[in-house]
Design goal:
CATH superfamily of the largest domain: Carboxypeptidase-like, regulatory domain
Radius of gyration: 23 Å
Number of domains: 2
Shape: elongated
Largest sheet: 4 strands, antiparallel
CATH topology of the largest domain: Immunoglobulin-like
CATH class of the largest domain: Mainly Beta
Number of strands: 7
Order of helices and strands: HEEEEEEE
CATH architecture of the largest domain: Sandwich
Number of helices: 1
Amino acid sequence: MLNKKTLFAVLMVVVLGFSSVAFTDTEDINKNENGTVAITLEGKIVDSETHKELPEVIIEVVDTKLITKSDKEGKFKIEGLETDQVYNLKFRHDRYFDYEIPVIKNTDDQDWNINVTLEPGRD
């Protein structure tokens, strides 16, 4: 059987080990590979005339491998972006004109939302 000092020492190692792991995981959870804060851009896309949500719009972050598609409510999400970086977003849909805009996030606040309106023009 362990004496009180040995038992206390073992418990301290276990507790400190778990707290160290917990703090390390929490600090790194929202970091990109280069150590900057990872930002998520969310948005909604609507028709410029009817203001109805547009599903199936392809959203591409130009010059990266990031690409996504809007859902049935016109919403989209792009994860892994960085602050103080200019990104060109390109929106494409078969029945709408392509639309490209530059966006930049100047703060580490992780909330980043945009609304996009596409103009009908393709048949």
